[in-house]
Amino acid sequence: MDETTEGFEFFIKIADTPSRRKLRLLLVDDSHEFVEQATQWLSVHPWIDIVGRAYSGQGALDAVTRLQPDLVLIDVAMGGMNGLETTRKIKQQLSAPRIVMLTLYDIPAYREEAQAAGADGFVSKSALHTELLRAIDNLFPLQIIKSGQRESRGEAPGQHHQ
After folding, report:
1. Is pLDDT of 162 > 50?
2. Architecture of the domain delimited by 24-140
3. Which of 54, 87, 112, 162 is deepest in the core (most CB within 10 A)?
């Protein structure tokens, strides 16, 4: 991805060097239509690898165990085991992934419940295109190349300072 802002060129570098890898992401929502739309939108970002999709809380638990994602995007309100209960169960695991909860209904009570369940972030589906990448960057700061000079903004998934 490259973007020009105020005369500077920014290039996000994550997947093209051996010391870095793509962000492994699991999408969870009981709406197949939303999962497909989110997949299409997220697939344009070369540093994101959508490793799986689940359509229920139990499906999410199975997928987290099997796929070991770095990040789970999960809907709050799903039939059966909802996103809050699923998040609590995922966060009980050793090496639990980061979790960003998604909802159509951005109300303070949902944000509080998401935080209490252990979610690392909360994004309204109506603001997905403007807020999700910011939330991901806050959880997994990337190294930015700005006008040929490196600015360290943290570590990519799987990268550790020595």
Report:
1. no
2. 3-Layer(aba) Sandwich (3.40)
3. 87
